[in-house]
Amino acid sequence: MNRFKKRLRLAVASSVAGSLLALAPVTHAAPNTFDDNTFGVAYGVSNGGSNPFFPIFQADATGSASSVEVANASGWTVDTMGNTLSLTWNKAAEFMNSGSPAFIGFKITDTGNHLADFLGASVTNTTYTPSTYGNLVEGFDQAHVTFDANNIYVNLNTAMWHAAPMASMGDPLRDHIALSVNFQSAPPIPEPETYAMLLAGLGLMGAIVRRHQRSLGNHGE
């Protein structure tokens, strides 16, 4: 009898544990793509440190793999696809930033908490391609990209664009910044077959009870 009770307790514990796991609420991972998700685009300035960011331009955008999200953000086109973020100068005017203020550029923000946390953003168009637009903006490099969980900052305070080459600067083909954004990956989400697990546990319990009853019946004959 004691062995039977022990086996029954184990079966009950197994069934209950499995059922609780199956019935636990499932939290779905935030998406690690801009596509079909809303985010904020702001262009502005800051004196750095704890000083506030003052937007000159700001808008909400919804990621699209087939169209440009923002056609003109203070002279820049903002485009996303998947986990990539592209900024392209429209070349309507020249500019040359001298390093002041401490920050002048873009802040990309997960305003509605729709995206997974940002873990970084890497410049991907560092290899120069002659005779082709799309090369990395002059005066800009990886060190000008910073981030936190909800924001990516693209600092253009030393960037420039000139329509014609100059003595040591001024390459009109350098009009673009391409970033690959690294999102936080969520652990795999278990999706157990709830009722199958519950029925399996109950079936095991029933089999043990029936076996014990048969054993008692045999002993009573």
From TrEMBL:
Keywords: Signal
Signal sequence, start to end: 1-29
All residue ranges annotated as the Ice-binding protein C-terminal domain in the record: 188-211
TM helices/strands, residue ranges: none
InterPro entries: Ice-binding_C
Designated name of the protein: PEP-CTERM protein-sorting domain-containing protein
Lineage: Bacteria, Pseudomonadati, Pseudomonadota, Betaproteobacteria, Nitrosomonadales
